[in-house]
Design goal:
The complex is a heterotrimer of chains A (331), B (290) and C (276). Chain A has 331 residues and is α+β, with helices and mostly antiparallel strands. Chain A is built from 9 helices and 18 strands. In chain A, helix 2 packs across helix 3 and helix 2 runs parallel beside helix 4. Chain A starts with a strand and ends in a 7-residue tail after the last strand. Chain B is 74% helix and 1% strand. Chain B contains 13 helices and 2 strands, in the order H-E-E-H-H-H-H-H-H-H-H-H-H-H-H. The chains are: A alpha+beta (331), B mainly alpha (290), C mainly alpha (276).
C-alpha cells in the first residue's frame, strides 16, 4: 500500500512562503511526477512527504494514517537523492544492506535480499566495490537498490537523473519505468525536465511557485492545458503563443498552437513568414519562422528542404488551437 | 533538513561547549575588571576597598608602561614585517617545481613546532651568546668580536627569535593559498601578454589578499601575547628595553603582588587585543558565508 | 597540459630552495649535533666541535639529574588529556552546528572564536588567584582544564569545517533508511569524520604541548610540563650547552614528528578554515 494525501499543507522558511496551502492525493501504485521550473518548490514538497522537513501547517496522511509528525524512518518511504548520497566508506553490499540493518533484519535475510536487489539492478559483480569506484549510472543503481530492499510504501526520487549524461539518462529512465511496472509500488518523481515527466508519469503534477497549476495524465496535460503556464511548459518544442488581432479574431486574449499542429505551404495560407533557422534532425525539421505575429516554431517532416530566407505560408490546425483569456486561463 | 526533533537534539549537543566557554569568558573577565577597581596587594592583605581609577592611573603612569607599549608595537610590527615579506618570497620559491619539494617543506615548517622556551633558550645560548654562541665563533673566525645581542639589542634579538618561529606559519599558509590559484587563470593572463611581474601584481597578489590578511591578524593576536621568550631570555631588560605589555602585567601582578594594578594592565591588554580581534573576526566571518 | 620546465631553471630553484630550507632548519640541526657532544666540546668553535667525538653523555645526564621523564609525562598527560576532553565536548557541538544549522549558528561560531582572542595576560590575575584558592596551582588537572578551555574554540572550528564538507544528503539518506540519531552518528557520520577528527586531535596536541604561558605561570616542580622544565635552563650553572641541547631535542622531537604528519590540516586549523 502506498496512498499519500496532502491536505492544506504549507511550508515557509522564515518569512518566505515556499508552498502556499496545497492539496494533493496520490493513489496507491501510481507513478506521479512533480514537474516545474527550478526553484518552484518541487524538492521542498518531496521532502515534506519524506519527513525531512516539518510542515508549517496542514496534514500529511499515508495509507490513511496521519504521518505529519512521524519521523522519516517511521513513514516507511524510501528516497533516491540527486547526489545519490551513498555512504562512501561502505561497500555497495553494505550500502544496500544498511536500511535492513537499521530495521534489525537478521544477517542471512539481509544477504538474501541484497543479492536479489543486486540481481535486478545488474550490480552483482560490483557488490564489494566502494561507491567511489563506480560510474555515475552504477551509483544511481546502488541508490535505487538501497531504496528497493526496504520494500517501502512509496519511492521518492529527487531529480535522480540530472547528474547523468544524455545516453545514460535515457537508459535509466526506461529502467525506472520498468521497475515501477514490476513492483507496482507508488513512485513520486521530481524533475524539471518535461520530457521525463511525459515519458514516465501516470500522473503529472505541474508546479509553479509552490502552487499546483494542473494535475493530470501526460496526454490530458498535452491536450487540454488549463492555463498558459502549463501550455508553455508541457510539450517540446514549446507551444507558440499569438496575441493581438489574430487572437481577437478567435475571441481570445492569447491563442496557442503547438509546432506540430501547423501546416506549411509555399503557395498560400493564414500567416506569411520568412524562414530563419531551420534545424534538420533527420526525422523532423524545426523551422523558426518570422511572421508579422512574431516568431513561430513549426515542426515539419524530415525531408522538407526549407532554407534560411525562404518565404512560406503557415496554417494552424483549427482543431488544435488553444484559447486563453486575459488572465491566462483556458477558454 | 532540520526538523523540530533534530533541533532539540542539536541544542542539547551544543550546550556543554557553550556553557563552558561562557563561564571561561565571564568569570575571569568580570574578576579582572572587578580587581582592576580594587585596592588589592597580596603583600598588604588588610588594605582593601574600592580604588576607583587609581590602578589604571598607576599602571599607565608607571615608568615601564610607555616603553612596554612601544616595545609591544615594535615587536608585533617587526615580526610581521619579517614574516610577511619572507613568507611571500619563500612561498613563491617553494611553489616552483624543484627536486625534493617535500623535504624542503618539512625543513621550513619545523621551527613552528619548537616550543617557545626551547627556541628562545637555543637562540640565546647557542647562537647569540657573545662568547660561545655560533655567531660569536663566526665573528672571531674572521677576526672580529662576539656581539652581545641580548645586552646590546635585546628587542631586536627577541624579534629574530619570534620571527624564526612564525616564518613557517606565514610561509605554509601563503603557499597553500598560492597552490589553490587557478592554473587556467594564470595561463589566460599569459595568453593576454602579461609578464611574470604583472602576473604577480595583478593575479597572484590579489588572490593572496585574503590569506595575507588572515596571517597578519592571527599572528598579531599571538604576537601581542609574547611572554615565554622574554621570560627565559631578558626578563624584560636591560632596564625596560625588551619589556612588553603581557610581561609588565606579569611583573605587576605576580612579582610585585599588586593584584589591582596587574588587573588594570590586563584590562588594557584585553582592549588592545580586541581591537585586532574585531578585524580578524570580520575577515573570518566573511569566509563563513562563502 | 604540463609544460617542460628547463632543467637549468629547475636546478637553480632546487639550489635556492634547499639553501633556504637548510638555513631555516639550521638551529634545530645544530642542537641535534650539540646534544651528541661533550659539554667541553659543545662550546668550542664550530669546526673543532664538529670533529670532536660523538657521545650520548648529555642524554644520560639529563635523565639522571632532572626527572626528565616526570616532565615529559606531564606534557603527555596535559596535552593529550586536554585534547581528548576538548574533543568529547566539541564533537557533538560541531556536529550539531554543521548539520542542524540554525539562524544563530554563525553568531555562535564567531562568539566561540572571540573567546580565543582574550589575551592570557588579561586574565592572569583572576586565574592565578582562582588556582591558588582552589588548590589547583601546580596540578596537572588544573592545567588540563585551562588548556581544554583555551583550545576548545579551535577544536570546534576545525571539526565544524570538516563536518561541513560531509554532504547533508548522506545523513538524510541515513534518516530515510531508518537510522536513529545514535546509529546515524555511529555508522555514517563517525566513519566519514574520522580523518577530520584525527587531524584535529593532532593539531591540538601540538598546540597544547607547546603552550607556554599558563604552563609556565600555573605550575612549579610537580606538574611542570616540558615547556616549564626547559625554562629552568634560563639560569644555568656551569657548562650546559650539551645538556640543554639534549633536553631540547627530547622535548621537541615527538611534536616535530606529529607536526610533520599534520602539516596539511595545520593550515585549516590555524586559520579557522579561512585558508584551505
Ligand atoms: N532550507 C531552506 N531555507 C530557505 N529557503 C529554502 C530552503 N530550501 C529551499 N528554499 C527555497 O524554497 C524554494 C523552493 O526550493 P526547492 O524546493 O529546492 O525548489 P526545486 O526543487 O523546485 O528547484 C527556493 O526558492 C529555495 O530558495
Ligand atoms: Mg530541487
Amino acid at each position: 500500500m502506498g496512498q499519500i494525501e496532502l491536505s492544506q499543507v504549507t511550508k515557509g522558511f522564515g518569512d518566505v512562503t515556499v508552498i502556499p496551502p496545497l492539496d494533493l492525493r496520490i493513489e496507491d501504485g501510481e507513478f506521479v511526477v512533480f514537474v516545474g521550473p527550478s526553484g518552484c518548490g518541487k524538492s521542498t514538497l518531496l521532502r515534506l512527504i519524506a519527513g525531512l522537513e516539518d510542515t508549517t501547517s496542514g496534514r500529511i496522511t499515508i495509507d490513511g494514517r496521519d504521518a505529519t509528525d512521524l519521523s522519516p524512518a517511521q513513514r516507511g518511504l524510501a528516497m533516491v537523492f540527486q547526489s545519490y548520497a551513498l555512504y562512501p566508506h561502505m561497500s555497495v553490499r553494505k550500502n544496500i544492506a544498511f536500511p535492513l540493518k537499521m530495521a534489525g533484519v537478521p544477517e542471512e535475510e539481509r544477504a538474501r535480499r541484497v543479492e536479489a536487489a543486486a540481481k535486478v539492478l545488474n550490480l552483482t559483480s560490483y557488490l564489494d566495490r566502494r561507491p567511489g569506484q563506480l560510474s555515475g549510472g552504477q551509483r544511481q543503481r546502488v541508490a535505487i537498490g538501497r531504496a528497493i530492499v526496504r520494500e517501502p510504501k512509496a519511492f521518492l526520487f529527487d531529480e535522480p537523473l540530472s547528474n547523468l549524461d544524455a545516453a545514460l539518462r535515457m537508459g535509466m529512465r526506461l529502467e525506472i519505468t520498468e521497475l515501477h511496472q514490476r513492483l507496482k509500488t507508488t513512485m513520486i518523481y521530481v524533475t524539471h525536465d518535461q520530457v521525463e515527466a511525459m515519458t514516465m508519469a501516470d500522473k503529472i503534477v505541474v508546479l509553479n511557485a509552490g502552487r499546483i497549476e494542473q494535475v493530470g495524465s501526460p496526454l490530458e496535460l498535452y491536450r487540454r492545458p488549463r492555463n498558459l503556464f502549463v501550455a508553455g511548459f508541457i510539450g517540446s518544442p514549446k507551444m507558440n503563443f499569438v496575441t493581438g488581432p489574430e487572437a481577437a479574431r478567435r475571441d481570445a486574449a492569447t491563442i496557442g498552437v503547438r509546432p506540430e499542429h501547423i501546416g506549411i505551404s509555399r503557395d498560400g495560407g493564414d500567416w506569411k513568414g520568412t524562414v530563419g533557422v531551420a534545424e534538420h534532425l533527420g526525422s523532423d525539421t524545426f523551422l523558426h519562422v518570422t511572421t508579422e505575429h512574431g516568431m513561430i516554431t513549426v515542426r515539419a517532416g524530415g525531408e522538407v528542404d526549407a532554407a534560411h530566407g525562404d518565404t512560406i505560408w503557415l496554417t494552424p490546425d483549427p482543431a488544435h488551437v488553444h484559447r486563453f483569456d486575459a488572465g491566462g486561463a483556458r477558454l | 533538513m532540520a526538523t523540530q526533533h533534530s533541533r532539540a537534539a542539536a541544542r542539547l549537543m551544543i550546550s556543554p561547549a557553550v556553557a563552558l566557554l561562557l563561564i571561561w569568558m565571564i568569570v575571569p573577565l568580570t574578576m579582572t575588571i572587578w580587581f582592576s577597581f580594587q585596592q588589592y596587594n597580596l603583600l598588604y592583605p588588610d588594605r582593601t576597598g574600592f580604588a576607583g581609577w587609581s590602578n589604571y592611573v598607576y599602571f599607565v603612569t608607571d615608568f615601564r608602561f610607555a616603553p612596554a607599549i612601544r616595545n609591544t608595537l615594535v615587536l608585533v610590527l617587526g615580526v610581521l614585517a619579517i614574516t610577511m615579506i619572507g613568507g611571500i618570497l619563500l612561498a613563491l620559491l617553494l611553489d616552483q617545481p624543484f627536486w625534493g619539494q617535500g623535504i624542503v617543506r618539512l625543513l621550513v615548517l619545523a621551527p613552528f613546532f619548537v616550543m617557545p622556551t626551547v627556541s628562545a633558550l637555543v637562540w640565546k645560548n647557542m647562537f647569540m651568546n657573545p662568547v660561545n654562541g655560533f655567531f660569536a665563533h663566526i665573528a672571531k673566525a674572521f677576526g672580529g668580536q662576539g656581539f652581545d645581542f641580548l645586552g646590546q639589542a635585546p628587542l631586536f634579538s627577541i624579534i629574530i627569535m619570534v620571527a624564526w618561529q612564525w616564518l613557517p606559519f606565514a610561509t605554509l599558509i601563503l603557499l597553500t593559498a598560492l597552490q589553490s590559484l587557478d592554473r587556467e587563470q594564470m595561463e589566460a593572463a599569459e595568453m593576454d601578454g602579461a609578464g611574470p611581474l604583472s602576473r604577480f601584481v595583478y593575479i597572484t597578489l590579489p588572490h593572496l589578499t585574503r590569506a595575507i590578511t588572515v596571517v597578519i591578524l592571527i599572528q598579531t593576536i599571538f604576537l601581542l601575547s609574547v611572554y615565554a621568550e622574554i621570560l627565559v631570555t631578558t626578563n624584560g631588560g636591560p632596564g625596560t628595553a625588551s619589556m612588553n605589555l603581557p610581561f609588565l602585567v606579569y611583573l605587576a601582578s605576580i612579582v610585585d603582588n599588586d593584584v589591582g594594578m596587574g588587573a588594570a594592565g590586563g584590562v588594557i591588554a584585553i582592549i588592545l587585543a580586541n581591537i585586532v580581534a574585531f578585524f580578524l573576526m570580520r575577515a573570518i566571518g566573511k569566509n563563513l558565508d562563502a | 597540459m604540463a609544460r617542460r620546465i628547463p632543467t637549468a631553471r629547475k636546478t637553480l630553484t632546487t639550489a635556492a630552495a634547499w639553501t633556504t630550507g637548510l638555513v631555516i632548519f639550521f638551529p634545530i640541526l645544530w642542537i641535534v649535533i650539540l646534544s651528541f657532544k661533550s659539554e667541553g666540546d659543545a662550546i668550542a668553535p664550530p669546526l673543532t666541535m664538529l670533529s670532536a667525538p660523538w657521545t650520548t653523555e648529555a642524554y644520560t645526564t639529563v635523565q639522571e639529574r632532572s626527572d626528565y621523564f616526570k616532565h615529559f609525562w606531564n606534557s603527555v598527560v596535559i596535552s593529550v588529556g586536554s585534547t581528548l576532553i576538548g574533543l568529547a565536548i566539541a564533537i557533538p557541538a560541531a556536529w550539531a552546528m554543521a548539520f542542524v544549522p540554525g539562524r544563530r549558528t554563525r553568531d555562535l561560531l564567531m562568539w566561540m572564536l572571540s573567546t580565543k582572542m582574550m589575551p592570557a595576560a588579561g586574565v592572569l590575575v583572576p586565574m592565578y588567584l582562582l588556582f591558588r584558592n582552589f588548590g589547583l596551582l601546580d596540578t596537572r588537572i588544573g592545567l588540563v582544564g585551562v588548556l581544554t578551555l583555551i583550545n576548545l574554540p579551535i577544536i570546534v572550528w576545525m571539526l565544524y569545517t570538516y563536518f561541513r564538507e560531509i554532504p547533508g544528503e548522506i545523513l538524510e539518506a541515513a534518516r530515510m533508511d531508518g537510522a536513529t540519531l545514535r546509529s546515524e552518528i555511529l555508522y555514517v557520520l563517525t566513519p566519514m569524520a574520522v580523518p577530520g577528527i584525527a587531524s584535529t586531535l593532532l593539531l591540538n596536541i601540538i598546540l597544547a604541548w607547546n603552550e607556554a604561558f599558563w604552563t609556565l605561570r600555573l605550575t612549579a616542580a610537580n606538574a611542570a610540563p616540558l615547556t616549564a622544565f626547559i625554562a629552568s635552563y634560563s639560569s644555568p650553572e656551569g657548562l650546559f650547552y650539551a645538556k640543554l641541547s639534549a633536553a631540547s631535542v627530547m622535548a621537541i622531537a615527538p611534536i616535530l614528528i606529529l607536526g610533520w604528519f599534520s602539516q596539511k590540516q595545520l593550515v585549516r586549523g590555524l586559520t579557522f578554515g579561512a585558508v584551505k
